[in-house]
């Protein structure tokens, strides 16, 4: 049925508001790319939304470090607070922020998260209560809480669905369980997906619509932003690249298979190789960053080799998805240029030239806070209007 100009404008207005609600802040150019609407259409509609007070405009630092910061837009949210939680394999981090995503306070506890979902969820609730207490914010002021989990979450059932990836959590519904402890349902997402969202809205990938964030830590997982949107897959298990076979008959992986990518290049395995080559063990076993070894020629060869192996798997992913950018996070990303060069070398060799010539490979500027920032971004997007 033909549409009138007014109906077309209304539809475009909805499209822009939806795109902005999904992830913000965003520039006019990003909104144009995400929605496929002409820049002039976006500019006109944004002018109207600003006049109506439905969105607001602010200058934000360009974390990519290039060019002049451009004016960014956010949907106007009622005043209040949001909470973001990041469950790692060995820690829980939480942050309290305003609905405009300004962080009020944050905290972190060390814990074997995989061992017991019940205990980890209890500790997260205690951490959040402590943050609210410290900031003097009543629990009723929290409009939405979002949490990242280092495993696949079935988006339809809300259950952790894999007994092979996060065994101690299999069958648990963390959103409901955490909600019961905090008093309101919690939005749950995979941590690599949240980190991808954070890099897209606040980090390295603000100017691209298609990016893959790779969390290279104790496990290896990828979060996908495709056509400007977080992509979870049909059952929430997209990006589980850590269990790609890279070495037939290799060492046993925690998933039961042999020779998985993460049994070969996890941060633990890289440290095992570093110490076997005579380099000193990490000062603190809980801090496995490679910062102190950047510049050491032996470490550089080991880290570059891990990069090449990771890059081999990323080449196939790039051939399938054609991203504009790979953002590498997790402790392995602290290996500096050696890691990135190893990845680029494999991309040149195994990805199609049309892809390897163009795809940018960067280490995560948000670092170990990426998933936490992503949890806040998701909480803001999902907070009631
Ligand atoms: Zn595996």
UniProtKB/TrEMBL annotation:
The keyword Kinase applies. Residues 16-56 form the HTH iclR-type domain. Residues 59-80 are annotated as: Disordered. GO terms for molecular function: DNA binding; kinase activity. One of its GO terms (biological process) is regulation of DNA-templated transcription. It comes from the Bacteria. Transmembrane segments: none annotated. Keywords: Kinase, Transferase. InterPro entries: ATPase_NBD, ROK, Tscrpt_reg_IclR_N, WH-like_DNA-bd_sf, WH_DNA-bd_sf. PANTHER family: GLUCOKINASE (PTHR18964:SF173), ROK (REPRESSOR, ORF, KINASE) FAMILY (PTHR18964). This is NBD/HSP70 family sugar kinase. It comes from Actinomadura viridis.
């Amino acid at each position: 049925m033909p549409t009138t100009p007014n109906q077309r404008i209304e539809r475009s207005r909805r499209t822009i508001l939806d795109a902005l609600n999904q992830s913000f802040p965003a520039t006019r150019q990003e909104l144009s790319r995400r929605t496929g609407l002409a820049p002039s259409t976006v500019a006109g509609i944004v002018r109207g939304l600003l006049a109506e007070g439905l969105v607001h405009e602010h200058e934000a630092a360009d974390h990519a470090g290039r060019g002049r910061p451009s004016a960014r837009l956010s949907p106007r949210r009622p005043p209040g607070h949001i909470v973001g939680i990041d469950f790692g394999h060995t820690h829980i981090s939480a942050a309290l922020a305003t609905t405009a995503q300004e962080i009020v306070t944050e905290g972190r506890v060390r814990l074997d998260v995989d061992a017991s979902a019940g205990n980890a969820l209890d500790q997260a609730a205690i951490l959040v209560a402590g943050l609210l207490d410290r900031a003097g914010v009543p629990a009723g002021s929290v409009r939405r809480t979002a949490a990242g989990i280092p495993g696949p979450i079935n988006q339809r059932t809300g259950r952790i669905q894999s007994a092979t990836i996060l065994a101690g959590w299999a069958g648990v519904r963390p959103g409901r369980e955490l909600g019961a402890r905090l008093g309101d349902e919690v939005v749950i997402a995979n941590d690599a997906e949240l980190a991808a969202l954070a890099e897209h809205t606040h980090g390295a990938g603000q100017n691209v619509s298609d990016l893959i964030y790779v969390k290279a830590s104790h496990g290896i997982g990828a979060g996908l932003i495709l056509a400007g949107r977080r992509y979870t897959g049909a059952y929430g298990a997209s990006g589980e690249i850590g269990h790609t076979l890279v070495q037939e008959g290799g060492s046993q992986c925690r998933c039961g298979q042999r020779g998985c990518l993460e049994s070969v290049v996890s941060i633990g395995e890289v440290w095992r190789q570093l110490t076997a080559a005579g380099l000193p063990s990490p000062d603190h076993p809980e801090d496995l960053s490679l910062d102190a070894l950047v510049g050491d020629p032996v470490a550089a060869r080991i880290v570059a080799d891990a990069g090449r192996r990771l890059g081999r798997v990323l080449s196939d992913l790039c051939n399938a998805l054609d991203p504009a950018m790979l953002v590498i996070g997790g402790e392995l990303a602290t290996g500096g240029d050696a890691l990135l060069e190893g990845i680029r070398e494999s991309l040149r060799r195994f990805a199609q030239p049309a892809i390897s010539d163009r795809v940018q490979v960067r280490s995560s500027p948000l670092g170990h806070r990426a998933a936490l920032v992503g949890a806040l971004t998701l909480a803001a997007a999902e907070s009631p209007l």
